[in-house]
Amino acid sequence: LFTVINESQKQQLECVSYSSRYALGLFYEAGTGLAVPWAAQYITDNPCIRFISIDNKKRNIESPEIGPSVVVHTTVTFGSEHLDSDPAEVQELILSHLQRIVPSLPKPHSVKCQKWRYSQVTRAVPNCPGQMILHTEPVLMCGGDGFTRSNFDGCIESAMSLAEAVKPHL
């Protein structure tokens, strides 16, 4: 039996930390009109909500057969403060803040509230090239934004690093 991860690697991985937040999805019947002039908006002055998007508009996939949807992300502070709260209560809190920010939104057909415990990297694996080789025979590697940063470029950087690291093992 081989050890998959050594103590040094374990300590490096334990250094990684993430912010937490909630994501709320509001789903509407086909044909519902949302009187909102923007596709996405970053909110700077609300203690609960940080980002709102009219998802189908943001993705440019408006269709008469598919109803619109709204995606809401909470602030990191709100996510941390309510990490262990009752999800139904959290959903109602977010909805009440959303109603104040965008009072024109109609009542949705359905709502989904999702806790996002590991939202974005706040501290990545230190001194790491975007990936970690855990074992060589057989080859076992790990990567992702926990080795770089939580944005598209960070994910691409990790993927490129993983591709380079696996080449000698092919």
Number of domains: 2
Order of helices and strands: HEEEEHEHHEEEEH
Task: Give the termini distance in whole angstroms.
Answer: 24 Å
Q: Which strand order does the major sheet show?
A: 3-4-5-2-6
- Major sheet attributes: 5 strands, antiparallel
How many separate helices? 5
**CATH class identity of the largest domain:** Alpha Beta
According to CATH, the fold-level topology of the largest domain is Polyamine Oxidase, Chain A, domain 2
CATH architecture verdict of the largest domain: Alpha-Beta Complex
User: Unreliable runs, pLDDT <50, ≥5 residues?
Assistant: none
Shape field: elongated
DSSP strand tally: 9
Percentage of residues in strands? 25-35%
GO molecular function: oxidoreductase activity, acting on NAD(P)H
GO cellular component, one term: extracellular region
InterPro entries: FAD/NAD-bd_sf (IPR036188), RNLS (IPR040174)
Protein name: RNLS Renalase
Word description of this protein:
- With about 170 residues, this protein is α+β, with helices and mostly antiparallel strands.
- The protein folds into 2 domains: about 5-15 and about 125-170, no CATH class; about 20-120, Polyamine Oxidase, Chain A, domain 2 (Alpha-Beta Complex), CATH 3.90.660.10.
- It is about 30% helix and about 25% strand.
- The chain contains 5 helices and 9 strands; from the N terminus they run αββββαβααββββα.
- It has helices at about 5-15, 55-60, 75-80, 85-100, 150-165; strands at about 15-20, 20-25, 40, 50-55, 70-75, 110-115, 120-125, 130-135, 140-145.
- The strands form 3 sheets. It has a 5-stranded antiparallel beta sheet with strand order 3-4-5-2-6.
- Strand 3 (about 40) and strand 4 form a beta hairpin.
- The two termini are about 25 Å apart.
- The model has no long low-confidence stretch (mean pLDDT about 90).
- One of its GO terms (molecular function) is oxidoreductase activity, acting on NAD(P)H.
